[in-house]
Amino acid sequence: MAERRKYKKRYCKYCEAKVDFIDYKDVAGLRFSLSERYKIMPRRLTGNCKRHQDMVATVIKRARAAALVPYTVTRKAVVVAPFENLR
Amino acid sequence: MRNYENLVIVKPTLTAEEIQESLKAIQEVITSNSGEIAATDDMGMRKLAYPIDKNERGFFQVIYYSAEPSVITEIERKFRLNEELLRFVTIKYDTNREITAWNELVKKAQKKAEAPKAEEKVAEAPKAEETAPEAPKAEETAPVAK
Fold first, then answer.
1. Domains of chain A
2. Taking CB atoms and an 8 Å limit, are A71 and B89 in contact across chains?
C-alpha cells in the first residue's frame, strides 16, 4: 500500500517534461521506473503513458545488457548501490 | 549512412596504457570498415551491475559513429573475436527523433572531450569550469543514495 500511495497522483512524468528520447546511459533517470529489486515498474503504479512506458522498457533492457543496471537482485547476489560510480 | 552508437566495456585487468591501446584497436575496426567516428566519450572505470566473466569492474567507452548498415555485422563479428572486450552494445539511431538525439549526444561528447584540453591552455580560467561540471554530477548521484 505504501508503494501505491507514493504513486497516487497518476500523470506521466515524461509527458510533463516533454521527453522525446531517453538515453540508456543516464542511469539515475531510469531509477524512477525501477523497483527496489530492479524490476521494471508497471504503468499502473508509475502513471507513465503507454508511449513513454515502451520507451522506458526498451531503455532499461539496453542498460541491463550494458551492465549499467542489474537484471536481478536476490538475497544471494545483492548489489550494493549499483548506481554509485566506483573508481 | 546510418548513425550508430557502440558502448564497449574493456577488461579492468589491463594497465591504463593497454586499455587505451585496445580502445584504439576497437576504433580502428570501425574506421577500417568505412565508418566515420563522430565522437568518443570515456565513462571511465566503473563498477559493473553484475559480474561479467568474473570481472567486477570495467572500463566503459561510448563511440558515436555513422556507417553503412551492412557493415555492422562485420564490426560485431570482429568485436566478438576481441578477448579484451567484455561486452559491447550497438544501438541504431534511425528515426528523426533519434537522429536529433544522436546529434545532441555527439555534441555533448565533443564538449566533454574538449574541456580538459582547454584547461591545459589556460591555467586559471578553466578552474571555474572545472568545478561547474562536477556539480551536476553530484546531483545525479544524490538521488541514488536514497
1. 2-65 (4.10.640.10)
2. no
